[in-house]
Amino acid sequence: MTTVRNLACLSVFLLAACGADPAPGPVEQIIVREPGAAPVETAAVVTDAAPAGALLAEGKAAFASCSACHALEQGAPSGAGPNLFGIVGSPAGKVAGFSYSNAMKTSDITWTTSELDSFIADPAAKVPGTTMVAGAIADPAKRHAVIAYLESVTAN
Fold first, then answer.
1. Full DSSP string of the chain
2. 88 in Cβ contact with 111 (< 8 Å)
3. What is the pLDDT of residues 82-134, one digit of tens each?
4. What burial letters (b/e) apply to 33-54, b meaning 16+ CB within 10 Å?
5. CATH match of 52-155 with 1.10.760.10
6. Which of 32, 38, 50, 62 is the most buried (most CB within 10 A)?
């Protein structure tokens, strides 16, 4: 009887192991070489910030806080801020039906990715007198993602 019980317990343990994760995630690799020896070839490190899909997903998530004031759908009415559909490449202060500050209307800015980046980083410094007093994004990677998302929505 104890043999049957032992076999049953062993079977339970073996079956439980079948559901375990097959392998842990990536592990740091340390390469040791002799002084003066040629460097060992390793896999290339990806230096791009993120693949396009991940960048757009990050931008969409970051834009969620912007959507409290800004619409991003073609033809949607503006809210507290102007509708940003098609903003990349457009002149500042020109979305029909939105009441801009004089500072924005006379800024003479065309919303290139560079101009958007500096404006989103610090709206009041870029356009003194703007009524956009909230929504600055200090993180350059997050700004880049938001701008990429704005471009992608306009392109589609």
1. -HHHHHHHHHHHHHHHHHTS-SS-S---------TTPPPPP-PPPP-SSS-HHHHHHHHHHHHHHHTTT---STTPPP-SS---TT-TTSBTT--TT----HHHHTS--B--HHHHHHHHH-HHHHSTT-S--S-----HHHHHHHHHHHHHHHH-
2. yes
3. 999 999 999 999 999 999 999 999 999 999 999 999 999 999 999 999 998 88
4. eeeeeeeeeeeeeeeeebeeee
5. yes
6. 62
pTM attached to this predicted model: 0.65
User: Where do the domains of the chain lie?
Assistant: 52-155
CA dist 93 and 2 (Å) reads 84
